[in-house]
Amino acid sequence: MTAEGLVRIDGAVKRFGAVTALDRVSVAVAPGRVTGLVGPDAAGKTTLIRLIAGLLLPDAGRITVLGLDSVRDADAIHAQVGYMPQRFGLYEDLTVAENLNLYADLRGVVGDERTAAFERLLHFTGLGSFQARLAGALSGGMKQKLGLACALVRPPRLLLLDEPSVGVDPVSRRELWRMVYDLVGQGIGVLWSTAYLDEAERCQSVLLLDRGRLLYDGPPRDFTDRVHGRTYAIHGVGAAKRAVQTRAETFPGVVDSLIQGRAVRLVMTEGARPPTAADLRAPDGAQVAPVSPRFEDAFVAALRGEEGAEHASPPPLPAPKRVGADVPMVEASDLSRVFGTFRAVDRVSFQVRPGEIFGLLGPNGAGKSTTFKMMCGLLPPSSGVARVAGIDLRAAPAKARTQLGYMSQKFSLYPDLSARQNLEFFGGAYGLSGRRLRDAIDRMVATFDLAPHLGTDAGVLPLGFKQRLALASAILHEPPILFLDEPTSGVDPLTRREFWDRINAMAGAGVTVLVTTHFLDEAEYCDRIGIVYRGRLIAEGAPDDLK
Questions:
Q1: Are 356 and 328 a contacting pair, CB within 8 Å?
Q2: Would you give the DSSP letter of residue 134?
Q3: 94 and 101 Cβ atoms separated by less than 8 Å
Q4: Are 191 and 216 in contact (CB under 8 A)?
Q5: pTM, two decimal places
Q6: Is the separation of the CB atoms in 81 and 160 below 8 Å?
Q7: How far apart are CA 235 and CA 280, in angstroms?
């Protein structure tokens, strides 16, 4: 191996039409370590990985992989590099064993070598007892493990992982990391693209891309130290946390503000004075204190820029339709759902008050989405009662659904309709027409800044705008209740912040929100959390109380 490492990139440029996806990037990837690749949507992460894998050719510059030229020696690179794409790339109608056999055929792994490889990989991933299960029937975490196993059928010298943990619960993410570090211990170099910034802190080195340019290359701790002495928390704000956060966003010198449990976290520009509790009209007894910086703090500061970093709050939304203040807006009472002999949800009970954000957390397959579907009237419960706005979903499902907006886990809009056509369709489905529909669409276009994309097909919108459009479609009819099923899965941290700014604004206006998420930092935005495991609600309370 050369001194430069597994990969050396010198001045790589890649363009797609008028868009420059990579702009004179020069980096090196070292063997026997995990190099993290982070950045917002459209930063160039996937393009860089595909260039290294020899699946794309650079327009300028040179890429050397394992001592081989990426243009002249692409076939030789393919034989020595393992690649796991961003989207699940296996065949969902084949079993675990059939997918492994297909990849072994493609890699030329036969006979005793194949037998030994399968035994090793099935033990390594814990998929041994699932060989006959269709890949499409696996949980999110198990799908990623199968994808990793297929990439390792012939042990590579370099493993390229493009956001392998998106949509994977925190428990399964830890298992993926354990497996990857086992590979690193065997001398395999890993390039791991991720949207989870806590994962970036686990890497030995990090590459930060933004709009095709390399902003940082080095250890994550050195990058985090850039905001040392500039991070603070406002404690003691209690129920005023959303109002305090909104005021902090416009305070001079604040780069970032976000809710953490009962506190509000701030990142300041270099040399800026942090606000006092009085500056933000925080409740009596609130205090501002320094806290240790995180990689995410430095990431947001770098991307928002140190000058003019203040960002505006989203435009206010109309107050929701009023329901009796003493009525729980969402209520599950001994809710159960059985599929054959499998009990997916087992006597779950909880209540959500008006204007409250309630989070459901748990590993893949715990029963979160099944609970969601029952609470939305999309799936009848086997037993128990589900109510929204005081309406029994079993007795009056159509009436109950008029009280809620629903944003599903997967992008559920019509990809071949334009953004405007989707809004018109969903508005009609919610009973809006004529002037009411036009006014509602105009309001959503202004609120979510959709005007530049109204004529664009939804399927080709950037991911952040897809999320905006999906949320706009869900709240066109101004529902008092909003259900969000993993709404920010795969979304970069800046877009997630923008999304949560809007959710917090809606909660502040009185909308009741029920949300599931695999981002544990997002759980900090919730007023209360319910943790679901094997169909049961095993813990419930405020984030700080649970911690």
A1: no
A2: B
A3: no
A4: no
A5: 0.80
A6: yes
A7: 12
CA distances from 361 to 294, 374, 520, 526 (A): 23, 16, 8, 11
Q: Is there a contact between 91 and 135 (Cβ–Cβ < 8 Å)?
A: yes
Residues 6+ apart with CB under 8 A from 116: none
Reduced to 3 states, what is the DSSP secondary structure of residue 525? helix
Q: Which two tokens stand for residue 171?
A: 């428990």
Q: How far is CA 160 from CA 9, 82, 313, 489, in A?
A: 15, 6, 38, 21
Task: Return contacts of 342-349, CB within 8 angstroms, 24+ apart.
Answer: 343/535, 344/370, 344/535, 345/370, 345/371, 345/374, 345/381, 345/535, 346/534, 346/535, 346/536, 347/384, 347/536, 348/384, 348/532, 348/535, 348/536, 348/537, 349/384, 349/537
Sheet containing 404-407: which strands, arranged edge to edge? 404-407, 481-485, 512-516, 357-361, 528-533, 536-541
C-alpha distances out from residue 375 to 326, 516, 531, Å: 20, 13, 16
Average pLDDT, the chain: 87
Give the amino acid at 478. E
User: What DSSP letter does each residue of 370-394 carry, written as one string?
Assistant: HHHHHHTTSS--SEEEEEETTEETT
Q: In whole angstroms, what is the distance from residue 214 CA to residue 218 CA?
A: 11
Q: CA 482, CA 81: separation in Å to the nearest integer?
A: 44
What are 77-80's contacts with CB under 8 Å, separation 24+? Answer: 77/53, 78/53, 78/54, 79/107, 79/154, 80/156, 80/157, 80/158
Pairing of strands 357-361, 342-352: unpaired
Q: What kind and span of H or E run contains 260?
A: strand 254-260
Q: Is 535 left (phi over 0), alpha (psi -120 to 50) or beta?
A: left
Region 258-262 average pLDDT: 89
- Interatomic CA distance for residues 375 and 389, integer angstroms: 11
pLDDT digits (tens, 9 = 90+) for 9-53: 999 999 999 889 999 999 999 888 999 999 887 789 999 999 999
Mean pLDDT calculated for residue range 66-78: 92
- How far is the CA of 251 from the CAs of 239, 256, 272, 279, 349, in angstroms? 20, 10, 10, 8, 41
Check residue 29 and give left, alpha or beta (phi > 0: left; psi -120 to 50: alpha).
Answer: beta
Q: Would you state the pLDDT for residue 309? A: 43
Closest CA to 402 of 373, 380, 379, 431: 431
Q: How many alpha carbons fall within 13 Å on the CB side of residue 84?
A: 29
Rounded CA-CA distance 541/211 in Å is: 40
Residue 369: what pLDDT?
84
| Residue 518 near residue 168, CB atoms below 8 Å | yes
- β-strands 481-485, 404-407: how paired? parallel
pLDDT digits (tens, 9 = 90+) for 81-137: 988 887 767 888 999 999 999 999 988 899 999 999 899 888 888 888 889 999 888
